[in-house]
DNA sequence: TTGACATGAAACCAAATGGTTGTATATAAT
DNA sequence: ATTATATACAACCATTTGGTTTCATGTCAA
C-alpha cells in the first residue's frame, strides 16, 4: 500500500472541507457516512476528499464490516511545522524589534 | 487597498512555485523580473503567483521606478501556526509515549 | 525623442479540481 | 432468501488553476 503521492500535505489542507474533515477525525474515528452527515454534499464527494487526505497520509481507513472507518494520522503535519519554523524567525524578528522599541520608549518615558 | 480575499494562506502555500517564491523573498526584496530568473516559466506566470500571494497578504509589492519590488509579509502565517497548534497535541501524545519508552529503556540499560 | 526595459492586462488554453449521478458489490438484518 | 445499508467505481460536468502569447503603458538611458 504505497503512497501514490499525488497529493502532498500542502495541497491536502488547502481545501476547507478537508480541513473540517480532519477536525472531525481529531475527535474520534468515523465512517464515511458519519462524516458525510456533517456536510452539505454527497457521500461520494466526501469519499473523494478522504482519498486525497489518505494520499497525503493524513488519514488512514480500515474496513470494518461494511463500513470504512477513517482515523487521523497527524504525523505528516510535522513537515508543515518544519516549513513554518523557517518563517517564524522572520516574524519573530519583527516582534523582537517591536519589543526593543517599546522598552526603549518606556525607559525614556519613565526616567 | 482592501484584500479581495479570494485566496487564503492555505491555498496560497499549496503551490510549490509559490512556496519557492516565498523562500526567495525571505532572503531579500526582489523585482518580478529578478524572481523570474529563478524559474523555468514566463514572467507573467510569476506575476500571477505574486498576485495570489499578495491576495493572501503574504507579500506586498511597491513600485520603484519601472520595477515592482515584492517583499515578504510573514504575518498571515500565524494563522497557519494556530491551525497547526491544535493538531500538535495529537502527535505530541505519540511522541510523549515514545519518549517515555526511550527513557525507560535508558534507565534499565544504564543502571 | 527614440529605443530598451519592466510591468500590466487581456484573451486564450489544457489540465486539475470539486462536485454530481448511476451502477455494482459486499455485508447486515429480517 | 430478500431487502436495506455502506461503500466502491466509472462517467460526466462546470469551474478553477496554472500556464501561455500578445499588446499596451510607463520609465530609464542614449
From TrEMBL, chains A, B:
HTH arsR-type domain span: 1-92
Superkingdom of the organism of origin: Bacteria
Entries under PROSITE patterns matching the protein: HTH_ARSR_2
Alphabetized UniProt keyword annotations: DNA-binding
Species this chain originates from: Viridibacillus arvi
UniProt name for this protein: ArsR family transcriptional regulator
Xref: InterPro entries: ArsR-like_HTH, HTH_ArsR_DNA-bd_dom, WH-like_DNA-bd_sf, WH_DNA-bd_sf
Gene3D superfamilies xrefs: Winged helix-like DNA-binding domain superfamily/Winged helix DNA-binding domain (1.10.10.10)
A single GO molecular function term of this UniProt record: DNA-binding transcription factor activity
SUPFAM superfamilies: Winged helix' DNA-binding domain
Amino acid at each position: 500500500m504505497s503512497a501514490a503521492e499525488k497529493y502532498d500535505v500542502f495541497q491536502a489542507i488547502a481545501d476547507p472541507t478537508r480541513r473540517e474533515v480532519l477536525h472531525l477525525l481529531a475527535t474520534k474515528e468515523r465512517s464515511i457516512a458519519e462524516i458525510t452527515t456533517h456536510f452539505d454534499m454527497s457521500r461520494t464527494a466526501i469519499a473523494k476528499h478522504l482519498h486525497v487526505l489518505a494520499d497525503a497520509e493524513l488519514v488512514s481507513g480500515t474496513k470494518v464490516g461494511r463500513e470504512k472507518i477513517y482515523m487521523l494520522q497527524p504525523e505528516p503535519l510535522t513537515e508543515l511545522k518544519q516549513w513554518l519554523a523557517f518563517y517564524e524567525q522572520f516574524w519573530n524578528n519583527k516582534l523582537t524589534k517591536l519589543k526593543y522599541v517599546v522598552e526603549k520608549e518606556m525607559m525614556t518615558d519613565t526616567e
